[in-house]
C-alpha cells in the first residue's frame, strides 16, 4: 500500500522548515562540512538544550546517598519503616536528621562513615575524612498526626494507604535514546559516572571525588518529537590533585572520559570542549561547598526536560509520593513510548495528604501520539494503579538493602538498566493499533507542516534512507550548494527483486549546470508528469535505486533541482503500515493533491 503526494510552489516563507540540507534519517546524526551544519540549522530550525550532572562526590550528592543508605538500612530490617531522612554536610562534619519510625536497629554513624568512605572521602585533602569527621544525629519519630492520616498507625490495607503529603509529580519519556531518556541528560550523566569509574580503577589516578558535567545538544523538533543532531558543547569540571597539569587533565578527559561515552557520530569539528575552564579545582567536596539532601532534583530526573513537581526523592520511604508517585508516572510515560503510542510523552499525577486515590492524572504526547491523548489517558488509568500503597506493592518499593536506593542517589533515578529499578520495566499497554486516521494529518487541504510530518513519520524508522530536500524558494539560504538531490520514497511489492545497495546520492555542479552522477545500481527509470498549480506541465526523468528492505520495501528516487531556483515540484510516495496511523488518509490526500 502506498500514498502519493505532490508539493507545488512552496516558497521559503511558506515552508521554512524545509530549507536545503543533507539529512541522514535513522542514525540521528548529520555529518559533513561546517556549511552543511549551518544549512541544517536553517532547514530544521534546530535549537540548543543543555543538561548537567554531578558526581557522587559532589556535596549535595553525598547527602543524597547518605539519606538513601539510611533508608536502605531501615527497609532491609523493617519493610514498613516510615523514613524521612535529611543530611547536610560542611567541612569536617556530617549531620543526619529527620523523622524515622522503624523497628530496625540502625547505626546511623556507621552508615555515614561507610558511605563517605566508599565514595572516596578518606582524607581532609580530598574534602572530607570519613574516619575522623564529626557525625551528628538528630532523628525523631514520625508525627502521630501524619501517621494516623496516612496509614492509620499501620492499620490500613495497602489500597487504603493515603499519600504521605500533597503534591504533583511528573514522568517523562522520549524515543531519542534506547533508555527512552533525553540524550543531553543521558550523556551528562554517563560522563559523571565515567569520571568516577576511571578515578576508582586508577586510569586517572589524579582525579578526586567531586565534579560536575554538562552537555549541550543541538536538536530539531520533528512535530513534537526531539531528534538529536549533534553535541554542541561538552563541559567537565572535576576535582583533581595538585600534581596534574591542566593540559594533562584535558588530554585524559578527552581520551578516557569523553571518547568512551559520547558516540563519535555526535561529535564534529565544531563541538566545543570546556575542560576545567576555571583553571584549578583542588579543593572540593564538603570542604569546598556545603551539601544538602534534595538539591539536585533535575539531575535526578530528566535534565530539565519534561517538568518537575519540586519534591526530592532521597531518604523517603514509598508512602512519600514525591518518590513513589514520580516512579509510577515514569513507568507510565516510558510504557507509552515503548508501546508505540507516542514518540514523546509526559504524565502528571497529583495527590492530597491522607487520600489514596490521585486527584488528577494528565497525559501530553506533544502531538506525537498515534491516537488522541484523551484515549491514551484512559489506557493509562486502566493500566496503572496510582494509589501509594499499591505503587509500593507493584514496584516492590518496600524492599531495601543491598544498596538498592543508594544506587538511585547518584547518576539518576531513571533510564538505568538495573533489576532494582522496577519502575523502568515497561508495562505492556493494550490498545487498538490498527491503521486509523490522524485528525491532524487527514484533511481535504493539506499544509506544508502536515506534509512535513508525513514525510518524516514514514522515513524515520528506515535507517538506510538518505534524504536530501530542496524546498527553499527563490532566495536559497544555502547558495554554496550548486545542485540538490531531491529524494522520494517508493513502496515496491514483495515480488520485486531487491538488491542490497547502500550508497550516498550525490550531485555536483559542472560548467554551471547540474549534472547527474551515475551510480552502479541495477535500476530502472520512469517518467513523471505532473501539472503544477500554474497549469504548466513538467516532465522529469527520475531514477529508482534499489535499497535494503526494512520494515517496508523501499527505493530511492533521485532528481536534480537547482537550489538557486524555486522548488517547483516534489513528489513523495509514503509507505503505510499498521503503526504509523496514516492508512485512512490515503484517499483524502490523493484527492487533495491531484
Automatic annotation (TrEMBL):
Name this polypeptide is given: S-adenosylmethionine synthase
Described purpose of this protein according to its UniProt entry: Catalyzes the formation of S-adenosylmethionine from methionine and ATP.
The species this protein was found in: Populus tomentosa (Chinese white poplar)
Sorted UniProt keywords: ATP-binding, Cobalt, Cytoplasm, Magnesium, Metal-binding, Nucleotide-binding, One-carbon metabolism, Potassium, Transferase
GO cellular component, one term: cytoplasm
Family annotation (Pfam families): S-AdoMet_synt_C, S-AdoMet_synt_M, S-AdoMet_synt_N
Pathway info: Amino-acid biosynthesis; S-adenosyl-L-methionine biosynthesis; S-adenosyl-L-methionine from L-methionine: step 1/1
Record field: catalytic activity: L-methionine + ATP + H2O = S-adenosyl-L-methionine + phosphate + diphosphate
Compartments in which it is found: Cytoplasm
Keyword presence, Transferase: yes
An example molecular function term from Gene Ontology annotations: ATP binding
